[in-house]
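FORM 12-B: Structure-to-Sequence Request
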């Protein structure tokens, strides 16, 4: 089959379109013909080598964390899917490879595609929607009446997180540029802050949850708007000791990770709030719940641009500009 192959790590390294062995559905796996795949900053970070300590893939390998397609085969023990089913997924770590014509995915990572969405729309959702779900529903347990701050509201995670937080009954604030204020307001944001001209710490206080995808001083400043007992949850780092333990890191790496997040954890404790790092995981059961919310009208995908399969490197370059509103998708 044809696939985009990363031959070596390197910042901005182009992916090579070439022949790759056809996948085979093993026990508990489902073979999917990929119709559309979404791009994520995680793909760029892995390509650049930034995630080697966490996800040590060995080149050559195929990138791609989001897909929608049609089941073309099932392995032994599979019971929930059959040939012809339309599905979507975020394959689990070390089983990625959505920038290809086909992929074998663990049955537990798959869910039926939302019936109201196209393949392109469905492919845009898994990673960002699972991230939003695992932050807001699992980690933060957002409930009606809570106040939630979501940084970078016009981004892939932000556009879904705003909608999910509103569905959960929260008051939602977000940061974005003035040009995207109408977009995030339409998604449900109650307070929209222009990060270029306004200081969110001067406008917000007493918040229950902050979801941060930013890596600059914004993370530290976000502690100021939380009330005692509040939660600052980062999806961009620095990772914390709980994450290191969950990843099964050795003693030395656990110490390194602890040092990386020591300052932010110490300041959070001083303010009587909690800091944690979340690295989302594949979960077909959660995806099925997300699909139900989509089909009910509670969530909708936001797609910036769709590229052809043979224009993947162009799509990666566009993603790197940071200007995308929502998701960037490739389609076959």
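FORM 12-B RESPONSE
SEQUENCE OUT:
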């Amino acid at each position: 089959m044809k696939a985009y192959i990363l031959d070596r790590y390197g910042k901005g390294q182009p992916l090579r379109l070439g022949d790759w062995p056809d996948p085979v559905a093993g026990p508990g796996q489902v073979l999917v013909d990929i119709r559309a795949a979404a791009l994520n900053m995680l793909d760029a970070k892995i390509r650049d080598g930034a995630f080697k300590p966490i996800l040590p893939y060995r080149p050559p390998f195929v990138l791609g964390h989001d897909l929608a397609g049609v089941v073309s085969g099932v392995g032994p023990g599979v019971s929930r899917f059959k040939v012809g089913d339309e599905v979507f997924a975020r394959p689990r770590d070390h089983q990625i490879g959505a920038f290809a014509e086909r992929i074998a995915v663990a049955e537990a990572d798959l869910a039926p595609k939302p019936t109201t969405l196209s393949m392109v729309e469905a492919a845009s959702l898994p990673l960002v929607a699972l991230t939003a779900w695992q932050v807001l529903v699992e980690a933060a347990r957002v409930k009606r009446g809570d106040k939630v701050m979501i940084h970078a509201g016009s981004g892939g995670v932000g556009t879904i997180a705003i909608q999910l937080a509103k569905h959960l009954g929260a008051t939602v604030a977000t940061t974005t540029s003035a040009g995207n204020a109408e977009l995030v307001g339409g998604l449900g944001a109650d307070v929209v802050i222009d990060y270029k001209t306004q200081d969110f710490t001067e406008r917000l206080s007493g918040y229950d949850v902050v979801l941060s995808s930013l890596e600059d001083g914004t993370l530290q400043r976000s502690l100021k708007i939380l009330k005692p007992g509040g939660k600052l949850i980062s999806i961009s780092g620095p990772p914390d000791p709980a994450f290191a333990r969950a990843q099964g890191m050795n003693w030395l790496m656990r110490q390194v990770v602890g040092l990386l997040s020591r300052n932010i954890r110490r300041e959070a404790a001083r303010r009587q709030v909690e800091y944690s790092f979340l690295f989302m995981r594949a979960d077909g059961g959660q995806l099925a719940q997300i699909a139900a919310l989509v089909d009910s009208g509670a969530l909708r995908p936001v797609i910036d641009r769709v590229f052809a399969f043979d224009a993947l490197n162009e799509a990666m370059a566009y993603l790197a500009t940071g200007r995308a509103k929502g998701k960037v998708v490739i389609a076959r």
